[in-house]
Amino acid sequence: MKRSDRSILLAATTRDEGMRLDRFLRERSGVLSRTRARDLLAAGGVAINGRRVKIASRPLRVGDRVEVHPLARERRSTAPPGVAPFRVVHEDTAVLVVDKAAGVLVQPTPQGDRGTLLDLLTRHLKLRFPDVKAPYLGLLHRIDRETSGLLLFSRRGSANRILAEQFRTHSIARAYWALVRGRVALDSGTISDRLVRPKAGARRDSVDLPGRGGKEAVTHFRVLERFPGATLLALTLETGRTHQIRIHLAGRGHPVVGDKVYGPGVPFAFSPLLDSFPRQALHAGKLGFTHPVSGEWLEFEAPLPQDFARLLAFLNPGHRAQAHAPSSPSEGLNDT
User: Fold this and answer.
1) Which residue would you say has higher pLDDT here, 37 or 206?
2) Spans of all domains in the chain
3) Taking Cα atoms as reference points, which of 324, 231, 315, 320 lies closest to residue 273?
4) Annotated catalytic residue: which of 16, 22, 144, 259?
5) Count of alpha carbons within 13 angstroms of residue 241, beta-carbon side
6) In this structure, are strands 282-290 and 148-154 parallel, antiparallel, or unpaired?
7) At CA 45, angle to CA 44 and CA 50, rounded to 5?
């Protein structure tokens, strides 16, 4: 039976009342075997009436809308070979801070949830607390799949509300390191404009014309080191818009190395290695927030991952000794 690589939408009729979900998928899809249907269920690629379902024996009801999203190979969530998908930096009864590897999706997509950071952390909590059937895990913010670095999760609903308010008021401190194309002339500066998504499915873009809407986005940058053909920047955010850093830097003529969406696609004149870097050279290196229970200010730092550190060492062999700890972007960290 031919495997489908496209999403499928099915509706349960009176003859399907009470039928097992896996059997329904096999009989009504025309392309899925029962084994393939169970694989998709386990991966989180099946939804009924908009809610993800993983129980093969779930009985259908008349009018149920069943969506099937086969997991595309190129969208699978996985860390590079030999790299752990995440590292726990801090954990207590209210918060969880982790250092995410590049290549790992933060949250589920319609195609599934297996291997996402939320899935992996839920398993982590179940192993640590086997008596808790469904441990609470609140997603507060995201970073791109190909960006590495720190993320904050809540461990209880009351903490989630307090931390969400900190994000809303921009009192969460976040600092990033980015390797960008070209020589950045200014030693430091601020990029401020509005980001807008012109139409559904289109990439975000920046606008500075009045009357065109969009949301305000502010990024502060500081040069850490200049290389032939590239510059290492420290960046702090006042806002946290989707792709904010990548759009801001690309809009100033300095896209992040390895950015396949906002980069120009023009080969580097100085280093073929920069062309071959497999992801965007962007790392969420610092995270600070007020603890939702104790009220204490907490600040965490994640060293550069090995691929990023090796890239810097190649650009400047003398950088090797400090490759895992570049000059800190923490000046003004609490002011964002």
Assistant:
1) 37
2) 8-70, 86-335
3) 315
4) 144
5) 22
6) parallel
7) 90
- Phi-psi sector, 193: left (phi>0), alpha (psi -120 to 50), beta: beta
Integer CA distances (angstroms), 98 to 95, 116, 179, in order: 10, 13, 22
- Residue 84 CB contacts under 8 Å (≥ 6 apart), including other chains: 101
Q: What is the pLDDT of residue 328?
A: 46
Active site (annotated) includes residue 205: no
Query: Which fold is adopted by the domain 86-335?
Result: Pseudouridine synthase (3.30.2350)
pLDDT band at 199 (very low <50, low <70, confident <90, very high): low
β-sheet bridge partners, residue 206: 195
Q: Find out if CATH 3.40.1080.10 is the number for domain 8-70.
A: no
Which residues, at least 6 apart from 43, have a Cβ–Cβ distance to it below 8 Å? 71, 111, 112, 113, 114
Which of helix, strand or coil describes residue 12? Answer: coil
Range with lowest mean pLDDT among 1-10, 28-37, 120-129, 130-139: 1-10
Structure tokens at 150: 């720190």
Nearest to 320 by CA among 225, 178, 182: 225
Segment 170-187 mean pLDDT: 94
**Which uninterrupted H or E stretch holds 35?**
helix 34-43
What is the per-residue burial (b if ≥16 Cβ within 10 Å, else e) of 175-208? bbbbbbbeebeeeeeebebbbbeeeeeeebbbee
Cα–Cα distances in Å, from 62 out to 13, 30, 299? 5, 20, 52
Q: Is it the case that residue 321 has pLDDT exceeding 80?
A: no
